[in-house]
Amino acid sequence: MTTFPVALPGAQASTLMWADPAHVEHAALEQLRNISRLPWVHGVRVMPDVHLGKGATVGSVIAMRDAVSPAAVGVDIGCGMTGVRTNLTAADLPDDLGPLRAAIETVLPVGWNAHDGRAPVLARDAGLGARFDGLMGRFGQLRAPKVADRAGRAAAQCGSLGSGNHFAEVCQGGDGHLWLLLHSGSRNIGKELAERHIATAKTLEHNLGLPDRDLAVFLAGTGEMAAYLHDLYWAQEYALLNREVMMATIREVVAQHFPHVVFDEPVRCHHNYVSEETYEGVDVVVTRKGAIRAGAGDLGLIPGSMGTGSYVVKGLGNPESFTSASHGAGRRMSRNAAKRQFSIEDLRAQTAGIECRKDAGVIDEIPAAYKDLESVIAAQTSGPSPLVEVVARLTTLLCVKG
Question: How many Å apart are CA 88 and CA 91, to the nearest integer?
């Protein structure tokens, strides 16, 4: 049995893995080595859900000195999770969860859909409405080119789920209590901001000789880096608010069906984001792409796939991992490969007993397309250098996907 962390052979900067290199795809390992060779990189940490990504590896934590790579964050800036424990138990639920899923889908835009103007819940929640107005009031200050006409779409998509691996779920914890879970990010505006800044970075002279132009960086003290961080922090705020608006919307639905419901304080975490931190006495810009912060006592959410449930975890503050942990199970095959290999019958079998879509449109999200969640959790809760401890294991009962 492999003892973690292990050093990545062939890496230049310190690259420690909570995954066995023998079980990681070759292309992902080469991508990590390319990252480690960037002259600004202080160190790289690799989570057990690691897999090949666009630009930078998913499941990577990159600490840079006086630089930041926009591709090391990715295009879904601020993507993350929100979870809320309730006082409800499975005994409160009806035998058929179809009407509850339909009620959520009626008010929660999924896929390409958006609200008509703005999310209705904003008119009923003064606090969220004020945050929305303040955030969108700063839209005109975004510095990426050619986004001025995207304000209307950004406003309408705030409070919408999107597609891919994003989801809204009702889960049951080991103590019997029901949880509401959300996974989503900064929607189209985050994608457009990231793409525009990545394109700018690729044109800069200091990036022309890089082994992978997708890893182009901005340098500290430059206008380009200041502009990127300005827009990135706005997008991270948007992503968090997007989940807050969705959670408020779902809470209203749940309260209509179960008037006695009580909601606990939410657990929130980004897993595609930038933070300025200090490790080994060095001030660094940390990008977590498919990784959560796991500082001592930090609560986090690590989901699997539709049907396999999620974990609530508490960070142990391990400096060896740059106080990070995985963001989920991680894909073990591409979406196209999953569509080729699996059928609707496979999807139905693997999501048996769960109220969710079981059609061709979500075959690429079939549980077998993802790594084993239990193994991913075990890699970061055991051994001499654990990253988190488990607070709760959540079992999926209902899943909404775009």
Answer: 8
